[in-house]
Amino acid sequence: MNTSSLSLLAALVLLPAPAFAHQAAIPFFGGQIAASGDMHVEFAIRDGGVRVWLRDHAEKPVAATGKVTLLLGGAKSEITLRAEGDRLVGEAPVKTADKVVAVLALNAGGKAVSARFAQEALVQPGLNAAASVGQGLFAANCASCHGPSLRGTDQGPPLLHAWYAAGSGHDDTQVLKVIGNGTSGHMWKFGDMPKPEGVKAGQEQDILAYIRAMQAANGIGSAPAAAMPAMGDHQGHAGH
Ligand code: HEC
Fold it and tell me: Which of 178, 179, 233 has most ligand 1 atoms within 8 Å of CB, for mutation?
């Protein structure tokens, strides 16, 4: 290798992070992301409230104050957000299963940040025998973290998410493996999923049937692996 290609290599290695700024921002906590100027806002609805994270293009948390206006079943309510660690939280009579429109108005050190989010009402499909057994198992073993609506909680990510669609990098084999063994945190910032101790061998298939039925009814169909963020060897789960 000659000197000029070496210095080219050095220049490439030293490229600052903003070179990747146009890559889709990752929803660390399973929420929806909107861009606002050079910042992005992650917004999530939980049962009983909302969560907001404001980050700069280098994923550094940005302090802010503000409010969210929720449009919920034809009624409008305005909720003042309060800071809690790296995020803003607000209590509201909202459910993860609800159809909601949320309009955020934040102030980040004098800079106005606004964003709009929407979520459809959860569709409860008719379930076959395996999936309805799975529904009960899910409620008992999974809902505490993934939510009764499979839309996530403060403890775990949503499973009604393109990353977990049938045919994605998280195919049936992968989901069954996780139900049997848990998984180390690698997609989000929730940490590890412990092995679900309450699930007996053979019950994984019923839980999978329930998750797939809920995904199909809620528009999470077969997704190309490209829907997942580029994260090294993640796509084929070679690293598990
Ligand atoms: C104590 C909380 C907790 C419980 C209970 C739990 N999970 Fe998880 N689960 C997590 C977390 C956290 C992750 C995200 C790990 C990561 O960062 O990828 C996760 C990830 C997953 C994934 C994606 C796996 C992957 O390869 O990325 C699936 C599928 C899943 N969980 C299904 C389930 C099912 C089904 C149950 C019930 C049998 C369950 N989980 C119970 C916390 C939990």
Answer: 178
User: Can you list the domains of the chain with their CATH numbers?
Assistant: 21-119 (2.60.40.3340), 129-236 (1.10.760.10)
CB 80 within 8 A of CB 35: no
199 lines ligand 1 (CB under 6 A): yes
Per-residue pLDDT tens digits for 160-186: 999 999 988 889 999 999 999 999 998
Is the Cβ atom of 194 under 6 angstroms away from ligand 1? yes
Pure H helices in 14-85? none
Find the mean pLDDT for residues 3-14.
Answer: 48
Confidence of residue 234 (pLDDT cuts 50, 70, 90): very low
196 CA: nearest ligand 1 atom? 38
Cβ atoms within 10 Å of 104's Cβ, excluding its own: 23
Cβ–Cβ under 8 Å, residues 127 and 118: no
